Amino acid sequence: MNNKVFEKKSIVPIVKEIRIIGPLHSGKMAILGSIEQAFLNWNKYESGVNIGFFPQNSNMENLCYQYKITIKKGELPKLNIDKITEYIFDLELRGSRLKWFLGKKMVRFRVLYFPGTLSFPSTAKNDHDWSKASGFSKELVDSLDNADGFIACLDANDNDAAFDFWANLPRILGKIENKPKKVVVCLNKSDKLFADREEKAYGSLLNESPLKYGKDFIPKSGLNCLDMYCKGVKLGICWSSVYGFLKTKGYANYNSNNDRLLLWGKEYNDQDVINNWMPYHVVEPFLFMVLGGVKGVKKYSVNSQQFKEWIMGKFSVFYRFLFRLKAVKAKG
After folding, report:
1. What confidence tens digit (pLDDT) does each residue in 295-311 have?
2. Which InterPro entries does the UniProt record give (predicted)?
């Protein structure tokens, strides 16, 4: 099942400038830190794509190392990174099965991480240094202006933080001249959301569409904001989880009682913990940035949704008219 790591050849990589944004504690850093482990668990036969992963700067190497060392204790590292940080890695993509003849391509991701505290401050609190936040927002705007796309991380269990994100987003997107071509909204911490369903957690996740949940969790104004400021953007929505799921047993690999891995403790050695750690959908958002469509990331069209609502509204008016006409005839 583990992905074969290819010997890296001298291929000129396609460079993708990606930004990871979102409110505080939304799992932005965790997605980057767990991505190497996710690649090691990548199923090339299920996805149709074989992948090689190559960190390209010390920030990326150190982050992956910190996560792998700390996860042995059953928890994620608590990194207090309060500045814009660059992480660079290469992906070598090669088609599997019948797609092998397509050859391979090398994609370099230059990912800028933006801390959530100043990027998307809470609308319920007024204790922020707004002058500092304003300067930070300018850096975010300038950075997004040069980006191919961005990954927006939201904690799927925190409606208030999601509200703060969508409330702050218009003031940022409205100042960008070169609009991003692709956006992925990651509904993070899905392990925590479904953990109480025990052995049915993974099955429940598969049956719960991120589009359906996202439309309830993401306000219509937020989606309209993307449509207004990023016309024609390719938007994807997906579940994601750094702790992951135990697919064969059905459980989320998350213990809500102590905020740790479920399979961790005296009965599990370090290798057992690592072997059972399978982050869920942390690779797919990056593949979406390259391929524009990937299993696990659901495409969402704001325009088609608005058209659907318009049509349904027209039908609703028509049916009300027929009902009233029928009532009048019945009285006559």
Report:
1. 889 988 765 444 344 34
2. P-loop_NTPase (IPR027417)
C-alpha span between 155 and 111 (Å, rounded): 20
State the DSSP H helix or E strand holding residue 331, giving kind and residue range, or none if neither. Answer: helix 302-331
Please report, in angstroms and rounded to a whole number, the separation of the first and last CA atoms in the chain: 73
pTM for the structure as a whole: 0.82
Residues 107-155 have pLDDT tens digits of 999 999 988 766 776 666 665 555 555 666 788 889 999 899 999 999 9
Helix (H, G, I), strand (E, B) or coil at 161: helix
Which residues in 198-216 are b (16+ Cβ under 10 Å) and which e? eeebbebbeeeebeebbee
Reported as half-sphere exposure (CB side, CA atoms, 13 A), residue 312 has a value of: 6
- Please state the three-class secondary structure of 86-152 as a single string: EEEEEEEEEECHHHHHHCEEEEEEEEEECCHHHHCCCCCCCCCCHHHHHHHHHHHHHHHHCCCEEEE
What is the C-alpha separation between 288 and 295, in angstroms, rounded?
9
Nearest to 94 by CA among 53, 155, 57: 53
Distance CA 278, CA 253 (A): 8
CB 269 within 8 A of CB 246: no
Q: Which domains does the chain have, with CATH numbers?
A: 14-300 (3.40.50.300)
CB 233 within 8 A of CB 226: yes
Nearest to 309 by CA among 223, 202, 201, 180: 223
DSSP 246-310: -TTT--BS-BTTTTB-SS-STTS-HHHHHHH-B-BSSSHHHHHHHHS-BTTBEEE-HHHHHHHHH
Instruction: Assess contact for 28 and 79: CB atoms under 8 A.
Output: no
Question: Do residues 281 and 98 touch, judged by C-beta distance below 8 A?
Answer: no
Helix (H) or strand (E) holding 183: strand 182-188
Looking at residue 198, the DSSP 8-state letter turns out to be G
